Amino acid sequence: MSTPAASVPVALGTAITDGGIGHVNFFNGRLLTSGDLQREQQARRDADARLGQAAGGGVAVGLEVTRDGGAGSSVVKVAAGVAVTSAGQVLRLANDQVVTLVAPPAGGTPNSSGGFGPCKVLAGGVYVAGDGLYLLLLSPATQAVGKAPVLALAGSNVRCNDDLMVEGVQLRLLRVDGSALEPGMDTNVLGARSESLLRSAAAAACFGHGALAAVR
Question: What's the distance, Cα to Cα, between the start and end of the chain in Å?
């Protein structure tokens, strides 16, 4: 349904449906397909995402990262917790996880060519000690679990009979290009004070403080 353009006055009580969420109208006798149910699932996701966007992106609870081992260890421990992406998607790490940064999981770990922006799915990379700045990211991941019985009228039914699509998370390693930070900032720092300054500079770049200052 179309609605009046923004430049045209709208009468009070007029339904404005631009950008609205469409839910499937269920009624007795309607022929339902998998597409109808998928649209209803997507409508639920859209509604949840709007709630998440209203709450704001960031870490809600937990997700602290600590070194697991002595100095120079490439293993970290990530505490259980909940975060919200800028798109409004809720990410939950149910249990504490111990993660090795040296080798990516089978299939490769997505990373970025540098800078702070939307993560791109590129070739897998590995952590190299003393080689700049890396960010450990919590990202959405979906995995099929189990098989469902089907009415095998067509061969395609058998090939796509996954029972559940579980929405989970994955830990990803992102190498940050030093040019994203302040000019002259050394990403191979030593000492608690220098590390603290680097974390602060990286956080400021992530939140776009430099761009905001330029706008002001």
Answer: 40
Angle at 61 between CA 140 and CA 164, to 5 degrees: 35
- Residue whose entry in the numeric block shows the structure tokens 């397909």: 33
- Measure the CA–CA gap between 83 and 86, rounded to whole angstroms: 10
Question: Which residues are CB-neighbours of 148 under 8 A, at least 6 positions away?
Answer: 161, 162, 163
Distance (Å, whole) CA 18 – CA 26: 22
Question: pLDDT digits over 23-68, tens only?
Answer: 888 888 888 888 898 899 999 888 988 888 888 888 889 999 888 8
Task: Find out whether 39 and 24 touch, Cβ atoms under 8 Å.
Answer: yes
Q: Which residues pair with 100 in a beta bridge?
A: 75
Closest CA to 82 of 55, 58, 98: 58
Q: Write the pLDDT tens digit of every residue in 150-198.
A: 776 555 556 667 788 888 899 988 877 666 666 666 666 666 777 777 7
Find which of 54-58, 108-112, 192-196, 212-216 is predicted with most confidence, using mean pLDDT.
54-58
The H-assigned helical ranges of the chain are 34-55, 155-159, 192-206, 209-215
CA angle 169, 174, 179 (to 5 degrees): 150
Q: Which of 138, 35, 144 has the alpha carbon at shortest distance from 89?
A: 138
SS3 content of the chain, % helix, strand, coil (to 5): 25, 25, 50
pTM of the complete model beyond 0.90: no
